[in-house]
Write a structure and sequence with these properties.
HTH_LacI (chains A, B), 434 Repressor (Amino-terminal Domain), Peripla_BP/Lac1_sug-bd_dom (chains A, B), Rossmann fold, alpha/beta, elongated, 3 domains, homodimer, DNA-binding (chains A, B), DNA-binding, transcription cis-regulatory region binding (chains A, B), 353 residues, 6-stranded parallel beta sheet, Lambda_DNA-bd_dom_sf (chains A, B)
DNA sequence: CCCAAGAATTTACGCATGTAAATATTATGC
DNA sequence: GCATAATATTTACATGCGTAAATTCTTGGG
């Protein structure tokens, strides 16, 4: 076995193509073409280079290559936060889709901060990404930043979008459908559902609230919303759901209601509040409390009781967003035609409702 | 209000410093210095440039700047997967710490795939990052890749490390302490704990298993381990915990035991299995079932019952890892002295045990 | 064996910036 | 108003690689 001081790999280290060229006797431009696509050089050179690369260590400089290529082959992605399994799933879907069509993705995370979001946009532009995919922060986003990106390169919004940019390309979930589905389901199996909302800073949250109201009116029921007040933030979804229902349950309200939560993380807090008050949501339970969420957060099957929810088609959203972006990158001249792709949700009926 | 076709920002777009220099009457090298640090140019030029930048749109080319600077000011981070709130917390801690000391972090995610991990390492080297922080995949990692990185630039491992690299700089949790703490606690309040393990591919999982055994022997108790067989993978922690306990409970085993789970995600699956069998873990419950986890996953306070666990000091780990890396970047000549920072865990006693 | 067509390689230049050294400008003190 | 120092700007070259155009090499046919 090797000792710590003799690593497995101690080939000669070479740091420019020029030197590599000298070391293995193939001209630099030929090497350049080899690294872009090995099939671009003759079989003999290809073998010669491969052999050479086994003797010396060399990787082309990322920046130099990117700077000089006509196209960088990169797309930029901005997401609001990482500490949410919904966004990590979305990001993964996007990365896979991009990889499949030969693009590298550069991810920037806003960390719930508009200033960081703005800086992320600057960074993407300075890297000459060929297109940008952004999931906005919500009301806190600086709209100028988005407009700036949009006016500069192919641009697609994912997951949620501001009311003020109705004309932007968008890929997401049809919340009128998905939330409607859940509302309808709850109204059918339990009493008229109450909506556990969030402070109105998140576009999707607002849209789901509106969708809930619309569906309730359509059903001839009285909409009822709790939880729009309070602080908000990525880290506090569960705490918000718990706090709101703690308050309600403590006063004896909502203990036998159907409750539709704006998303699963809020619902997880809601389940917790119920448990604390000796309540258990579920179709099988006496008492009539029902709790449902939205998104199909990966943990939903494991909560106690398991959480009834409506799934977003995350994979399709990621794939479609990338496809649309690549299409408009290739079109060069912006086609002008706005694309709007809204995927339906799918009910996941589990124990909690 | 603006129409869609007249975005707020439609300043003249300038794409090189040369042109910017012509446009606002300041020499290019002066601009270069301005963009590196505005304080590097005279007050008058600074004002002149600021005014100019309000009229035209320009951002320095990321690649050109990075290519030419002596130091890139970037550190690379490789993490095994994103769909785990532990790693997103760690990543956030690292990003904040890096930002504080003026470094930009480039994150690469292995997606549980050694080939992608290897490519990530290549990418980092090709970007001339000044140091690398890696959380390895586990047994599947290609050790040569790590050795290669380590021999090339300042290198620190975080979270877990292979047995085969005992001499590498490492920052993580002292699992002999943390797991010992939990083992001891369970032994004290309940019966001798059983360890719900994982397939032996994850370094931390293995270390916790060993720590459990050591502590049990120290306490004069018989260690007992379940769940080492089965498939593994980032996406299946909860499913694994659930499946193992489903099997046990179905045969009437472990229904009144103290169970220490290798991590919180496995514990969440365990809680679920218990609920399915009409069992509820907890100090307050009759029956004697107790379940504890490890990590203090953000959802622990919200599970039903809330999950007793031992917290890793994620912030400290992130900060310390970055600090160590930056230190050895600045030292230039590798000091040779290995650094090992292990943080103690902290018991979080909740309902489940 | 020679010539032409085709393929591969080399030459030469370009990319957008950093940076050291040389020069010009401004400020300071008297 | 002048010499000098301090500061700012310009000149000139460097970075590592992409790429079009020019050149060399290979191959096959006659």
């Amino acid at each position: 076995m090797d000792t710590p001081d003799t690593p497995h790999v101690n080939k000669e280290r070479i740091d420019t193509m020029e030197h590599l060229s000298a070391a293995i006797g193939v001209s630099r431009p030929t090497l350049s073409r080899y690294f872009q696509d090995p099939d671009n050089v003759s079989r003999t050179s290809r073998e010669r280079i491969r052999k050479g690369l086994e003797r010396v260590e060399y990787v082309p400089n990322f920046f130099a290559t990117r700077m000089n290529r006509k196209s960088t082959g990169m797309i930029g992605v901005i997401i609001p936060y990482l500490n949410d399994l919904f966004f990590s799933r979305l990001l993964e879907a996007i990365e896979r889709a991009a990889m499949d069509v030969g693009y590298t993705v550069i991810t920037q995370c806003s960390h719930s901060d508009p200033a960081i979001e703005a800086r992320a946009a600057e960074t993407l532009m300075s890297m000459n990404v060929e297109g940008a995919l952004v999931a906005p922060l919500g009301n806190h986003s600086d709209l100028d930043v988005h407009e700036r990106l949009r006016s500069r390169l192919p641009f697609v919004m994912v997951d949620s979008r501001p009311d003020t940019m109705p004309e932007v390309d968008f890929v997401g979930t049809n919340h009128y459908h998905s939330t409607g589905l859940a509302t309808e389901y709850l109204a059918r199996v339990g009493g008229p559902p109450v909506f556990l909302a969030m402070p109105r800073v998140n576009f999707n949250a607002m849209e789901r609230e509106r969708a809930y109201i619309a569906k309730m009116e359509q059903l001839g029921l009285e909409p009822r919303i709790v939880g729009v007040e309070g602080v908000s933030g990525a880290g506090y979804f569960e705490a918000h759901g718990q706090a709101v229902l703690e308050r309600e349950f403590s006063s004896g309200r909502l203990v036998a209601s159907s409750i539709l939560c704006v998303n699963d993380r809020v619902a997880i807090g809601a389940l917790r509040a119920a448990a604390t008050h000796g309540l258990e949501a579920g179709a099988m339970q006496r008492g009539g409390l029902r709790i449902a969420g939205h998104d199909d957060y990966p943990l939903c099957p494991y909560t106690v009781p398991s959480l009834t929810t409506v799934a977003q088609n995350v994979d399709a959203i990621g794939r479609t967003a990338v496809a649309r972006l690549v299409e408009s990158i290739r079109a060069e001249k912006s086609s002008g035609k706005q694309i709007l792709k809204l995927f339906d949700g799918e009910m996941k009926i589990r124990e909690s409702a």
